[in-house]
Amino acid sequence: MKSLLPAFKVYSIIILLILSSLVLSNCTEVPLSNENKILSITLTRGNFTKSFDIVENSIVGTVDSSIDLDGLSLNVPISKGATISPDPSKINSITGDFSFTVTAENGDVKIYTVSIKRLLSTENSLLELTINSNGLTFKPQINSQNNTINQRIPSFINLTSLDVSLRYSNRATISPDPTSIKDYSTPVKYTVTSESGDKKEYLVTLTPMLDSFSESCLTNMNANKWFGGDNRTNTPDILPNDRNVGTGQAVKFNTDVNPQVFTVLMNSGFKFFSTQNNYNQNVQLKLNIRDANGKIIASTNTTVLGTFNGGAITFNIGNLNLFFKQDTTYIFQWYLIDGIPLGINTGSLGNSNPGTGFCFSGGYSAEASQRKGTSLEDTSVWYSHSWNFNIEISGKK
User: Fold this and answer.
1) Tens-of-pLDDT digits for all 397 residues of the chain?
2) Where is the DUF5018 domain (predicted)?
3) Which structural domains are found in the chain, ordered by start?
């Protein structure tokens, strides 16, 4: 039997050679990468995203004038195994040119210069002018065709001492400083300059309301609405001295006005309905002026003399310093003060026919009840009435 030793030795030698080869191969060094490139660069701010071209070692680009270069983020992928400084994730604003240094695995360095700028705005518009005076606010229209602002102002406002604020294009400047201008008794010229240097001039002209106007609806009377208290004892649904009825009328002007006198029309003097005896004493009527939402914007009273026998009742509203805007609805509502305990009434005259124009802007009525605890000061008791009531308004425009 032959010995197995020589064969074993041969196999052992082969295995040792293989192992030696493997060890030697593992000891061979893999060269380090020399790649040190910025592969792309993307800027994000809110919903805005933009990528920029890389030309050799430069990154140059712009963003629109509306995009601020703060509160941003940069996405800058680089070659595998390389490092970059500064860390792009730490950059959230760009205030000027800067550079990135990209270092390859083998230490090779490449420097990229970055120049990303915001375009200068060319906007140079006056967007809004606001006048605050005597508790009133005016926002006149700006004529963008000829860059003018014209507004008529109630004569009770002093044009030599106005609080005016202006809003203009973002990044633009304005001259003179609006806060330094108080006197608008003569036209004032403003210059708005864009960030890019483009200029635009605006002329502001404010004129006092001095022309008289009058809107009369005192004709065409064919309706008579109960107005005031009620002392009847023989009406099933109405308790004596329990209700007070008021009337109202909406108005809308085709130009800005400063109303000074408001007139309503009644068919007779105040009397007790049950006896038809005249009251023959002075009474007070209350006038509330509301906006289209029912909010009271002004109020006043007027005295009706005991000798009043029907006709016009006038409210002096000039001292209320009112300004009514063009094409805006205002609601006048009037009623007898203490109508419930007095129990006297008259008739508010009106027109029951349909029509168009100022005199047909919409009538109102309301009823307050003592037992229900309601008041004619409460807008919820007022409702639209099918009649339009006879009124007259005069003043300045």
Assistant:
1) 444 445 555 555 666 656 555 444 455 578 999 999 999 999 999 999 999 999 999 999 999 999 999 999 999 999 999 999 999 999 999 999 999 999 999 999 999 999 999 999 999 999 999 999 998 999 999 999 999 999 999 999 999 999 999 999 999 999 999 999 999 999 999 999 999 999 999 999 999 999 999 999 998 899 999 999 999 998 888 999 999 999 999 999 999 999 999 999 999 999 999 899 999 999 999 999 999 999 999 999 999 999 999 999 999 999 999 999 999 999 999 999 999 999 999 999 999 999 999 999 999 999 999 999 999 999 999 999 999 999 999 999 9
2) 77-204
3) 42-118 (2.60.40.2340), 126-209 (2.60.40.2340), 212-396 (2.60.120)
Residue 286: CB atoms within 10 A of its CB come to: 19
Are 346 and 270 contacting, i.e. CB atoms less than 8 angstroms apart?
Answer: yes
* pTM metric for this prediction: 0.76
CB atoms within 10 A of CB 110: 20
Label residues 51-66 b or e (16+ Cβ within 10 Å = b): ebebeeeebeeebebe
Q: Alpha carbon 16 to chain centroid distance?
A: 89
- Residue 309: what are its φ and ψ, rounded to 5°? -125, 20
Compute the distance between CA of residue 229 and CA of residue 279 in angstroms, rounded to an integer: 12
Tokens linked to 42: 């993307």
Q: What is the 3-state secondary structure (H, E, C) of 345-382?
A: EEEEEEECCCCCCHHHCCEEEEEEECCCCCCCCCHHHE
Side-chain half-sphere CA neighbours of 301 within 13 A: 9
